[in-house]
TrEMBL record, chains A, B:
<dbReference type="InterPro" id="IPR010211">
    <property type="entry name" value="Redox-sen_tscrpt-act_SoxR"/>
</dbReference>
<dbReference type="GO" id="GO:0003700">
    <property type="term" value="F:DNA-binding transcription factor activity"/>
</dbReference>
<dbReference type="GO" id="GO:0003677">
    <property type="term" value="F:DNA binding"/>
</dbReference>
<keyword id="KW-0001">2Fe-2S</keyword>
<dbReference type="Pfam" id="PF13411">
    <property type="entry name" value="MerR_1"/>
</dbReference>
<keyword id="KW-0238">DNA-binding</keyword>
<dbReference type="InterPro" id="IPR009061">
    <property type="entry name" value="DNA-bd_dom_put_sf"/>
</dbReference>
<dbReference type="InterPro" id="IPR047057">
    <property type="entry name" value="MerR_fam"/>
</dbReference>
<keyword id="KW-0411">Iron-sulfur</keyword>
<dbReference type="InterPro" id="IPR000551">
    <property type="entry name" value="MerR-type_HTH_dom"/>
</dbReference>
<protein>
    <submittedName>
        <fullName>Redox-sensitive transcriptional activator SoxR</fullName>
    </submittedName>
</protein>
<keyword id="KW-0408">Iron</keyword>
<dbReference type="GO" id="GO:0051537">
    <property type="term" value="F:2 iron, 2 sulfur cluster binding"/>
</dbReference>
<keyword id="KW-0479">Metal-binding</keyword>
<dbReference type="GO" id="GO:0006979">
    <property type="term" value="P:response to oxidative stress"/>
</dbReference>
<feature type="domain" description="HTH merR-type">
    <location>
        <begin position="9"/>
        <end position="77"/>
    </location>
</feature>
DNA sequence: ACCATACTTCAACAATGGTTCAGGTCCGCT
DNA sequence: AGCGGACCTGAACCATTGTTGAAGTATGGT
């Protein structure tokens, strides 16, 4: 019957249990500026409930291979003042779905190329589409100069 | 007119230039057992030409996010004795294309779920399909226990 | 034979995404 | 008031995937 009922804030342990993310990772996210908390008089973290959504968002992004730095940038698009609402989340999620679509298309192109390459048994470096994704080939003498750009 | 013509072996610099992968990375790959070289009497590396394919294979795999340890396992399926032929490469590439297909399907499921979630504005942690990908929900009281397994 | 260039090793450092531990403090229940 | 469990910080450590630099050696062309 203490203040714990007040706004139903979450301790780091609560958040860890509900999200399945270890407390150590949550502290790390806070250090990185992905989530925030207020502190009690005794210096303990208290998270507002919408942090649960932020953490869900972070983990979903991570499953897709998006680095935390980028996740942070996207989360920064949420309003600071008020608790993000349904529409706010829809907005950032959409941004993010586009990213996912790009990744899927990229992988599909890669797979299609690979299927061709299996057909010809190549991976031939000099001619293979897979190995020369940037089409930066054919204007500087024989042989490829680069396999891959990244 | 020295021995350099012999079998057209590549120095680490040659390989770096032709593959677009820095020498430092190539040495690293060798340390990790992903590629091999013989040594000259002066202890310098000489790579056989098929190493170019191996490196191409490694970089393509990396673009998809496959860790080197796994790439190593797949490359280990190539014959040690002889130079891998067309069919050998087709075999390992196929193995690998399946992996790609799985990843694509996974991402598509993720995106479909996300699209639904944008529809409902949720990412609601307790009910959202995205946040509960393992369907391990609904048999232990209210509220999700885990957001994500990996 | 000489010299520039490329090569060698080893160690240290970098970024990402955390975990673990030590030493100490706080919270809430009885 | 006391106690156990949860929380705090900071530093050290882990794996992955390399890069950079120092100090020394080899190779190949003139």
């Amino acid at each position: 019957m203490t203040v714990s009922w007040q706004a139903r804030e979450l301790t780091v342990g609560d958040l860890a249990e509900r999200s399945g993310v270890p407390s150590s990772a949550l502290r790390f996210y806070e250090r990185q500026g992905l989530i925030r908390s207020r502190r009690t008089s005794g210096n303990q973290r208290r998270f507002s409930r919408d942090t649960l959504r932020r953490v869900a968002f972070i983990r979903v992004a991570q499953r897709v291979g998006i680095p935390l730095s980028r996740v942070k940038d996207v989360l920064a698009l949420l309003p600071e003042e008020r608790t993000p609402n349904r529409e706010d989340w829809a907005r950032v999620s959409a941004w993010w779905r586009d990213d996912l679509t790009d990744r899927i298309e990229h992988l599909q192109r890669l797979r299609d190329n690979l299927t061709e390459c299996i057909g010809c048994g190549c991976l031939s470096i000099d001619r293979c589409a897979l190995a020369n994704p940037c089409d930066s080939l054919g204007d500087e003498g024989p042989g490829a100069r680069r396999l891959l750009s990244p």
